[in-house]
TrEMBL record:
Species per Swiss-Prot/TrEMBL record: Agaricicola taiwanensis
Pfam families reported in the protein's UniProt record: AtuA (PF07287)
UniProt-recorded name of the protein: 3-methylaspartate ammonia-lyase
InterPro entries reported for this sequence: AtuA_N
Boundaries of every Acyclic terpene utilisation N-terminal domain copy: 61-208, 237-392
Length: 452
């Protein structure tokens, strides 16, 4: 095929997109409609808890529009990293919604569901075989870390999607996926070279983010033998050489070398040609093969959280806030000890918004002139009861602790909510950012087919 057209509806399934943009995209007769379903950006909670980070209502809305557009027009549809984190509960949620929508709207299609959640015993075998290595500053992976993991996923490449397409799937829903992989898979399955196919995936993974003004909207990318054409379907947006070049730097340590399962996309020699005031053609990308590896991600339980939010505009307290907070921490530690909670049993964190609340000790601006400060007080402990008890003590100390020159004889803080304290439940942390060597790109990712 000399060209292959792919339509991305948004940055994430559930972020929303204008229906008019989808309709405009359909007029260009795309061969594939799709969307990236998730990301690690929202943190480890969603992988650990098995919950989606977009609401089910929002996911259903986007999915209904996409399914109807794809099935009624005979267009393939692909979604990677379903449900936000791509674990089995996330994948099952989106698959269930797809079946419900099909029943409600009278849709019929062949569905492929590709799992990405990993069996801990298999990961241990690969540790013993020395087939797993850490990324960045992560330590070597141990069997203890595997045992502590609540959920482990592998980040699949394009091959499982290509296999599903070969086996006749109309709609493909997948667990954790390299963001560009579903798009690259569809283009390569259609006979296009890997380099422009992967570059197209890089553009499509965030919907219309490569366009200006940025926003969650639809992007049409046409893949050809020698390059890629990008154009948003919303007439209010446009792709420019600068906006495309800017997006090619997205979420990558190197500005030019993008490491993916089985190879590296090199954009060092890319050129950007404006075809109009809304469309850009990119040439010069190359693809080189490497040993086949996929990333492993896991979340483990770190404890249980309780939080409260309060604020002050007392100029005397603000002028001495650092020493005031030191006193809060000391008093809370003493009071907690009376309840049998030792310092090792919990962690008290106070974020001061208006003074280093975002960057904490990394904040380069040290002069504070704010007339008010907000405090997010957080306790993470081994159990919810301890977290809630220590937080209640810290909240009381914030409210009533004396400080030099204090004039108010009542509370120091204003609380926006009643009850002031919120039990946030389990807290997770990422415990794996490792890569595993594979002999077969399909071996970690089972594919189940059904007629819906």
């Amino acid at each position: 095929m000399k060209e292959f057209r792919l339509l991305s509806t948004s940055g994430i399934l559930g972020y929303g997109f204008p229906e008019a943009s989808l309709k405009a995209g359909l007029e260009r007769k795309p061969h594939v409609i799709g969307v990236d379903g998730g990301s690690v950006d929202p943190g480890p909670h969603y992988l650990g808890s098995g919950k989606p980070f977009c609401s089910t209502m929002a996911i259903r809305r986007d999915l209904r529009l996409m399914l109807n557009a794809a099935v009624r027009n005979g267009i393939k549809m692909v979604i990677g990293t379903c449900g936000g984190a791509g674990g089995q509960p996330h994948l099952e949620l989106v698959a269930r919604l797809a079946r419900e929508i099909a029943a409600e709207d009278g849709l019929n299609f062949k569905l492929a569901v590709i799992g990405a959640e990993q069996d801990p015993s298999s990961i241990k075998e690969r540790i013993r075989a020395k087939r797993i290595r850490p990324l960045g500053r992560m330590p070597e992976l141990t069997e203890e870390t595997v045992d502590n993991a609540v959920r482990i996923v592998g980040m699949m490449g394009p091959e499982p999607f290509m296999k599903a397409l070969e086996d006749g799937a109309d709609v493909i829903l997948a667990g954790r996926t390299s963001d560009p992989a579903p798009w690259a898979a569809c283009a390569m399955h259609a006979g296009l070279p890997p380099a422009p196919s992967w570059y197209a995936g890089k553009m499509l993974e965030c919907g219309a983010t490569p366009a200006v003004p940025k926003g969650h909207d639809c992007l049409l990318v046409t893949v050809r033998e020698d390059g890629v054409e990008c154009e948003p379907t919303n007439p209010e947006r446009r792709c420019t050489p600068l906006s495309i070049a800017n997006h090619s730097l997205h979420e990558n340590a190197s500005p030019t070398h993008h490491v993916e399962p089985g190879g590296i996309l090199d954009t060092s020699n890319c050129t950007f040609e404006a075809l109009s005031d809304r469309a850009v053609y990119i040439r010069g990308m190359t693809w080189s093969k490497t040993d086949y590896t996929v990333k492993l991600e896991a979340a483990e339980l770190a404890g249980y959280r309780a939080t409260t939010i309060c604020g002050t505009r007392d100029p005397l307290l603000i002028s001495t806030v650092d020493s005031f907070l030191d006193t809060i921490r000391k008093n809370t530690e003493m009071k907690s000890a009376d309840l049998g909670a030792k310092p090792d049993d919990y962690k008290l964190i106070i974020r001061t918004y208006g003074k280093n609340g975002v960057m904490a000790e990394r904040e380069p601006v040290h002069e504070v002139t704010s007339h008010e400060l907000g405090f997010l007080v957080e306790v993470v402990a081994k159990d919810q009861d301890t977290a809630s008890a220590v937080l209640a003590l810290a909240r009381t100390q914030m409210l009533h602790t004396d400080f030099p020159g204090r004039l108010c004889r009542e509370g120091n803080m204003a609380f926006p909510f009643s009850p002031s304290d919120q039990e946030a439940g389990p807290v997770y942390r990422f415990s794996m950012h490792h890569v595993v060597e594979l002999d077969d790109p399909l071996e970690l990712f089972p594919i189940a087919h059904e007629t819906v």
